[in-house]
Amino acid sequence: TPDREWWKEAVVYQIYPRSFNDSDGDGVGDLPGVVEKVDYLDSLGIDVVWLCPVYESPNADNGYDISDYRSIAAEFGTMADWEALLSALHDRDIRLLMDLVVNHTSDEHEWFERSRRREDGYEDYYYWREGLPDEPPNNWESFMGGSAWTYDDVREAWYLHLFDEKQPDLNWENPAVRDEVAELVNWWLEKGIDGFRVDAINYVSKVEGLPDGDPDRSPTGLEQFSHGPRIHEFLRELYERTFANYDAMTVAEMSGTTVEMAGDYLGESGDGLDTIFHFQHVELDVGPDGRWDPEGWGEWSLPELKRITSRWQGELGADGWNAVYLGNHDQPRIVSRFGDDETYREESAKLLATFLLTARGTPFVYQGEEIGATNAEFDSLDDLNDPMTIGGVEGLLADGVVDSYEEVRDLVNYTSRDHARTPMQWDDTESAGFTDGEPWLALNDDYPGINVEAARADEGSIWHHYRRLIDLRHAEDVLVYGEYDLLLPEHERLFVYTRTLDDERVLVVLDWSAEPATVEPTGVDAADAEVLIANYDDPPADPVGSEFRPYEAVVYRL
Ligand code: TEU
Predict the structure, then answer these.
(1) In DSSP terms, which residues pair with 275 in a beta bridge?
(2) Which end of the chain has the lower number of beta carbons within 10 A, N or C?
(3) Cα–Cα distance for residue pair 192/77, rounded to 1 Å
(4) Which atom of ligand 1 is nearest to 219's Cα?
(5) Which of these CATH numbers, 1.50.40.10, 2.60.120.970, 3.30.420.10, 2.60.40.1180, describes 483-557?
(6) Residues in CB range of 464: below 8 A, 6 or more apart
(7) Residue nearest to atom 14 of ligand 1 (CA)
(8) 143 lines ligand 1 (CB under 6 A)
(9) pTM above the 0.95 mark?
(10) Strand ranges (DSSP E) for 281-352?
């Protein structure tokens, strides 16, 4: 059995503050708006809030471009508002994770301003390269489309940005940069927060000399800047100088991580990180050329999802712990992607919740998932806000891969990061109770039917299913610490697993499809099974040999 830790037993709820709740009518969610909803969070039963960035930022990437790590953006409120949120959460025994974005800063950060002017001590805070303004130093591409280099007219040199041109990459090779990062992390930990979600941290070490990348890879350069040669050294050093000295949880966002790599990052025997957001399951349905490949997207198979999930569930080792998620602010809505947002919206949203809350690892619920929020529709480029989507589409247009937005509209309506960023749907009044003003991003027009108020009024709703599952997880140690074993690995429609802790055993049966499916004998004796939770009335009493209905999800105690 793994060591007991509060963060293993916790259920985390992710808040995208811009879209959560607006208290002052400017159309942008804010910190007092979150405070107003702390009782709401408490009633759902969650233990931890991960708050996406609320720091000062010119918002080229909605706060992931930070211009001052130690201040709150005016549109979100003041430091006093933030402190009020921290105490409102702590008063209810809810902990707070902040977002740590230190692969890059904003180009409006003071460090960059000084660096581009070659001020003493700041010259090497970023990746600068000399050269002619018409020839970037290498062939690396940015995640936001186009070259990863921009020529700066002030310094008359190129700077590297793996994301937007307003997000220059910090040069972690420079010890002064690592000092700055450790200081700001400790500054926040001293304010009493409970940990960090660590943004895009797999990119902080780049191959020496910044060599060209394989031109056939998308984005080009990935193998030169992801999980680079000094990453473990940098992360271990940061851990020892910061997190190790606090009772803090860390969840590191690291695309490209396999379960084999994870051991070197996690726990005391690795770099000291607690958990990782890997990307393997959210890359299943992406085309061969990446997320904006207009060909070959949208298909994923359950056996493959099970294979990936099961490797992480079963093979992390004693020092590892999973972070379990299906959606977040960078991904489409989970019911539209992994479920069925039409005929079986209720059933499939409850099935996804059942998976999230009975898998082994700390579950992350993204705002709106608890009401089964669906993808929106973006009819033109003007309806979009996300720089990654816009950059992706503009790249395809510029390269002549497509001739018009219409040709990629279906892809955008499948995968855009904007889906998850439409405002939270609180009730059926104008603007869904999110704001008294004009929302910064259009609401999904399904809010009159899909909203928190309606869901809470209905005992059979997705919302109440989440609440009951969270209660169940809190009550049953086996759901937290129990070993995971997959049954029926090749089944096309059923995802069946057990969780086992000493003599406690739970069986989870998910018909992850729109068709009925029968559980064939698996070697598990379930004749006296007790139903702990189900998303249909009258679930099969003895699951083995029984037929499950579309998206039926049942948890049994054996
Ligand atoms: O996202 C990082 C991220 O998703 C990439 O690391 C990922 O590897 C890439 O999209 C390829 O799939 C984080 C934030 O969550 C996101 O909102 C920010 O835009 C980004 O970092 C930059 O800070």
Answers:
(1) 251
(2) N
(3) 19
(4) 11
(5) 2.60.40.1180
(6) 455, 456, 458
(7) 199
(8) yes
(9) yes
(10) 323-324
Residue 149: DSSP 8-state: E
CA of 475 relative to ligand 1 center, distance in Å: 35
Ligand 1 binding pocket includes 164 (Cβ within 6 Å): no
Report the separation in Å between the CA atom of 330 and the middle of ligand 1, taken as the mean of its atom positions.
7
Q: What are the structural domain ranges in the chain?
A: 9-104+176-468, 105-171, 483-557
Token couple for 429: 């009044």
- The CA distance from 103 to 247, in Å, is 24
b/e sequence 276-310, b meaning 16+ C-beta within 10 Å: bbbbbbbeebbbeebbbbbeebeeeebeebbebbb
At 213, give phi and psi (nearest 5°): -95, 170
CATH tag for 105-171 (out of 2.30.40.10, 3.40.220.10, 3.90.400.10, 3.40.50.800): 3.90.400.10
Active site residue 199: yes
The tally of CA atoms less than 13 A away on the side-chain side of residue 91 is 10
Half-sphere exposure of 262 (CA within 13 A, CB side): 28
Has 370 been annotated as catalytic? no
Q: Which amino acid is at 304?
A: E
- The pLDDT profile of the chain, 558 residues, written as one tens digit per residue, is 788 999 999 999 999 999 999 999 999 999 999 999 999 999 999 999 999 999 999 999 999 999 999 999 999 999 999 999 999 999 999 999 999 999 999 999 999 999 999 999 999 999 999 999 999 999 999 999 999 999 999 999 999 999 999 999 999 999 999 999 999 999 999 999 999 999 999 999 999 999 999 999 999 999 999 999 999 999 999 999 999 999 999 999 999 999 999 999 999 999 999 999 999 999 999 999 899 999 999 999 999 999 999 999 988 877 899 999 999 999 999 999 999 999 999 999 999 999 999 999 999 999 999 999 999 999 999 999 999 999 999 999 999 999 999 999 999 999 999 999 999 999 999 999 999 999 999 999 999 999 999 999 999 999 999 999 999 999 999 999 999 999 999 999 999 999 999 999 999 999 999 999 999 988 888 888 999 999 999 999 999 999 999 999 999 999
Dihedral of alpha carbons 149, 151, 154, 157, sign? positive
Measure the CA angle with vertex 507, ends 503 and 511; round to 5°.
175
* Residue 141 near ligand 1, beta carbon < 6 Å: no
Q: What is the CA angle 212-198-435, rounded to 5?
A: 115
Q: What CA–CA distances, in Å, run from 333 to 108, 213, 326, 338, 442?
A: 32, 33, 9, 9, 16
Q: For residue 382, what are the contacts with CB-CB under 8 A and spacing of at least 6?
A: none
Residue 196's nearest CA partner among 178, 204, 184 is 184
CATH code at 9-104+176-468? 3.20.20.80
Same topology between domain 9-104+176-468 and domain 483-557: no
Q: Which helix (H) or strand (E) holds 237?
A: helix 231-241
**Looking at this protein, which amino acid is placed at residue 498?**
T
